[in-house]
Design goal:
- By secondary structure, the chain is an alpha/beta fold.
- It folds into 2 domains: 2-117, Response regulator (Rossmann fold), CATH 3.40.50; 127-221, Arc Repressor Mutant, subunit A (Orthogonal Bundle).
- The protein contains 8 helices and 12 strands.
- The protein has helices at residues 10-22, 33-42, 59-68, 84-92, 105-117, 153-164, 172-178, 190-203, and strands at 2-6, 26-30, 47-50, 75-79, 97-100, 127-130, 133-136, 142-144, 147-149, 169-171, 211-214, 218-221.
């Protein structure tokens, strides 16, 4: 199997790499969370092994970023943080397994093999659904309940980003960077205008407003309940 190992301790990285290589696996090491995120999103992997405590980007944030971006690779947390709360937070962040240091290579190999035998989850979602709104990432079809909604390309990108961060406040700057790929303020109402048009299309004939404005902060895609 092809494995991405996110581990900043050189001795541990060498120990794990050699042990997994001896078992027939191919291991690529990332020495910090940022490097691991880049590697995970630009390659194809069978299993990710991630330390909780990493420079630049911690393991929990790394996995949460991957999950929110639709990447569903099996994840094993490999860490010294072995408390019950630590384990729960790791699994809640999107981890599939949790192994505490120090550990036996035989156990790590067994866990890697077990995850590798699981039916593969789709690496990229094709459908996003929040409340009664559903979007197809392949066909770009949008439907709220039984009503089809026609969106322009940038409106669709905006909606996808908001849905992937449903329940969270996203700022204007975040939208400019992630939806428009603008890393400066263009000095226009481009975000406000697109949000307004998108909101009108989504809520037309429907009772519940899906996108709300959080005054002074940004926008939030509302999650029922």
């Amino acid at each position: 199997m092809k494995i991405l190992l996110a581990e900043d301790d050189p001795e541990t990285a060498q120990f794990v790499t050699q042990g997994l290589a001896d078992a027939g696996h191919h291991v690529v090491v990332a020495a910090d969370g940022s490097e691991a995120l880049t590697g995970a999103t630009s390659g194809t992997w069978d299993v990710l092994i991630i330390d909780r405590v990493l420079p630049k980007l911690d393991g929990l944030s790394l996995v949460q970023s991957l999950r929110s971006g639709g990447h569903q690779y099996p994840v094993i947390f490999l860490t010294t943080l072995g408390g019950i709360d630590d384990r729960v937070s790791g699994l809640n962040a999107g981890g599939d397994d949790y192994l505490v240091k120090p550990f036996a290579l035989a156990e790590l190999n067994a866990r890697v093999n077990a995850l590798g035998r699981r039916p593969q989850r789709i690496q990229q979602e094709t459908i996003l659904k929040v409340a009664d709104l559903e979007i197809d990432l392949i066909s770009r079809a949008v439907r709220r309940a039984t009503r089809a909604i026609d969106l322009m390309q940038q409106e669709f990108r905006l909606l996808e980003y908001l849905m992937r961060h449903a329940g969270q406040v996203v700022t204007r700057t975040m939208l400019l960077e992630k939806v428009w790929d603008l890393h400066f303020d263009p000095g226009t109402n481009i975000v406000e205008n697109h949000v307004s048009r998108l909101r009108s299309k989504l809520d037309d004939g429907s009772g519940t407003q899906l996108i709300s404005t959080v005054r002074g902060c940004g926008y939030k895609f509302n999650v029922p309940g």
